[in-house]
């Protein structure tokens, strides 16, 4: 198949079912994320204030776009719950999760291990938190912002991934945990999100269809970056303006939009990358296409915050899942693409018997890459209990697609 024929096929297939589903402007608001610093374990009034702000923000943005979720992120857990390891602290976290569920908010309790805590027994603790809550996410610093890789935290994160997988159906509990490196506060996307400073908010979007539409009639790679930049600036300008209005009306600080085009099952970033490269994802040319799109995401006219790079979540993107099934790329190649674009390794299905040491080595590679290039990255792996590399896995989660388990070797 010629490059031109392949590009036309990708564009037609992706747009046929997804354009109308994306809502006004060709995108959804994936999240409005409010960040607050809690004064202690019982600081529900501050959370109530955040919930009220999000309700107002959702109503305002909902007049023009679909708002998929509202979320609250806090500072690192130990700063407001210093006894987080104790049974009574776990009960408090369950109480906070119940509070979030009642208000239809997602809650990030911030990074739990930041590099200074005793990491012993963290895996068991993490599995208990996931099994006893429904709306709570959390993370660990594999490399704190401005610091190098932290071996104890990396190993504890790997233990958590293995323990969570073993204690949740299909290993899906790992949807709410990740190890991060150089991820700053103000990232709207979970589970990496955390907060510092005055109450503030950020916006995250599901916007691959905006990019795909911009390239629909492109005959060659020449000028694609200008098309993408113009389309994103047009689409994001009203979001940015409305966010500034919300900040002015409420007194909440607006930190910006994470321009990362978060994909969905009807809104594939893999299709966009293939449109730019003219080849299936994973073939030679993929790295350059990722770099070109990321350069656009980091050079827009709106206020920005967070990753501002390509997300490549295998289980949330039908094109990426299909190319994984075809064996066109590996876990290590996903990490390679992150060197020029991405957010790291995201919802990647791996064998259920993956060892702590192997997962720790992968997190270490991610942290080393992040430190070398001073960029935010994260690892969110899905060991699937009872499944080996190459075996098919399906999930009950409506946001996850079926995919073959990817080998780690």
TrEMBL record:
Signal sequence interval, chain numbering: 1-21
Q: Which domain of life is it from?
A: Bacteria
InterPro entries in the cross-refs: UPF0210
- Extract the Pfam families matched here: DUF711
Record's keyword terms, sorted = Signal
This protein is called: DUF711 family protein
């Amino acid at each position: 198949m010629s490059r031109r024929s392949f590009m036309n096929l990708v564009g037609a297939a992706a747009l046929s079912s997804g354009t109308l589903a994306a809502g006004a402007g060709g995108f959804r608001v994936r999240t409005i994320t409010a960040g607050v610093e809690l004064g202690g374990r019982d600081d529900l009034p501050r959370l109530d204030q955040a919930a009220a702000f999000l309700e107002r923000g959702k109503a305002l943005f909902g007049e023009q776009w679909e708002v998929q979720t509202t979320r609250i992120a806090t500072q690192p857990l130990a700063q407001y719950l210093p006894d987080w390891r104790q049974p009574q602290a776990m009960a408090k976290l369950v109480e906070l999760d119940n509070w979030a569920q009642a208000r239809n908010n997602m809650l990030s309790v911030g990074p739990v291990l930041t590099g200074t805590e005793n990491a012993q027994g963290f895996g068991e603790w993490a599995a208990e938190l996931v099994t006893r809550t429904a709306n709570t996410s959390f993370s660990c610093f594999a490399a704190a912002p401005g610091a190098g890789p932290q071996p104890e935290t990396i190993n504890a994160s790997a233990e958590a991934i293995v323990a969570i997988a073993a204690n949740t159906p299909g290993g899906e509990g790992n949807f709410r945990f990740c190890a991060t490196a150089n991820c700053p506060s103000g990232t709207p996307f979970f589970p990496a999100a955390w907060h510092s400073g005055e109450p503030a908010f950020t916006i995250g979007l599901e916007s691959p269809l905006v990019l795909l539409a911009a390239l629909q009639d492109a005959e060659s790679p020449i000028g694609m970056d200008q098309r993408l930049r113009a389309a994103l600036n047009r689409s994001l300008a009203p979001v940015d303006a409305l966010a500034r209005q919300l900040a002015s009306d409420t007194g909440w600080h607006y930190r910006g939009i994470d321009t990362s085009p978060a994909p969905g099952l009807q809104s594939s970033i893999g299709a966009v990358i293939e449109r730019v490269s003219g080849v299936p994802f994973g073939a030679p040319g993929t790295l350059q296409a990722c770099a070109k799109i990321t350069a656009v995401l980091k050079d827009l006219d709106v206020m920005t915050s967070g990753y501002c790079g390509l997300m490549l979540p295998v289980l949330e993107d039908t094109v990426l899942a299909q190319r994984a099934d075809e064996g066109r790329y590996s876990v290590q190649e996903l990490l390679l693409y992150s060197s020029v674009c991405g957010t790291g390794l995201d919802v990647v299905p791996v064998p259920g018997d993956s060892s702590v040491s192997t997962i720790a080595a992968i997190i270490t590679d991610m942290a080393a890459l992040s430190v070398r290039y001073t960029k935010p990255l994260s690892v969110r792996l899905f060991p699937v209990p009872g499944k080996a590399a190459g075996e098919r896995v399906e999930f009950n989660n409506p946001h996850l697609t079926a995919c073959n388990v990817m080998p780690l070797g």
